[in-house]
Amino acid sequence: MRAIVNGTVHTVAESGTIDGATVLVEDGEISAVGPDEEVEVPDGAEVFDAEGAHVTPGLIDAHSHAGMAEWGEPEDGDFNEVSDPVTPHVNALDGFHPRDDELKHAFQGGVTTVSARMGSANVVGGIICSMKTYGDVADRMLIREDGMKAAFGENPKRFHGDEKDRQPSTRPGVAATLRQALMDAEDYLRNRDIARENDQQFERDLGMENLARVLEDDLPLRVHAHRADDIATVFRIADEFGIENLSIEHATEGHVLAEEFVARDVPAVVGPTISSASKYELRNITFETPGILHEAGVKVAIQTDAPVLPQEHLDVCVGLAVREGLPKEVALRTVTRNPAEILGVEDRVGTVEEGTDADLVVWDGPMFELDSDARQVFVEGERVYDRERDDVDPREEYAW
Length: 400
Known about the structure:
About 30% of the residues lie in helices and about 25% in strands. The protein has helices at about 100-110, 140, 155-160, 170-195, 205-215, 230-240, 260-265, 290-295, 315-325, 330, 335-345, 385-390, 395; strands at about 1-10, 15-25, 30-35, 45-50, 55, 60-65, 110-115, 125-130, 140-150, 220-225, 245-250, 270, 300, 360-365, 375-380, 380-385. A hairpin with a 7-residue loop joins strand 7 (about 110-115) and strand 8.
């Protein structure tokens, strides 16, 4: 058993923020949390004195390629299966590499969970997985399959239209490609049901089985979309096929359509916003987007799209959003409870509550302030990072 005592604990739950609090950890889970005088630390427990520092849930990045993209190295870039623009049969878990350095940097920076996904080359990219950032076997790091990746805009047009000279080469082509895939899935579902009712043999198809889960609301549709017109097209297609369980990823111009997000109860996973607008569809990028969406009533999470931005700088992205209008009191929520709820993993991560995983970060200041740093990080109760113990002098690590 372990205990973190004497901390300012931000539970991101009904208990709110508790000054002078203790968090008890047993068998990888939080067994108790409350004021120091109300939580008894058992004899023999390993005690960590937070010395008044801030204790938060481990941060969650709801849109990442950490573990998949290997810092963009082509030798290990297992996140875009570009053999076809529609690849619902692939699963991010099969390409997740626990030894990716991006994951090490993630947990050292307080990010303990990522939604690892295929890239945005394909209109339908494959199954996405919520993963812990610390571990040695992907299966044990898996929390759950949390969605089906789809992508609109410039990326699928470039990969397939410009480079492969095939559909989609236009935005209407992207929309038509997704519609056709969903129509094929509807037909597949109908034929499968008929075969089962008549006790007939039926040839299964892995991709159609996965897309059927989207139509049956078992698997959320998570759509890469920057421009407002692309976001509107996603909403249009979702309405056509009765898809209610979806999220808009990036949402660069989401602030333009805030009321549409609210009307459909669709969350926005915003970012990466530290950018020089490298694509035309990013020309209206701004850190004001999270604050505008939040004020409108949209559930907002902030992302890095690692390795587009370094995974460990998720807290910096939150700080810049605060500077541009995101209320300080909801800042932590955008990288803890909100992404946990969007991903459907709130029963395990995103809050400091009894029964949740003991993924915890001890910060030497408010998480979103630039001069704050992770002092200690725990994943399922294991102390995976200690700044005094683990930090190295970069001059000593430099290789000529």
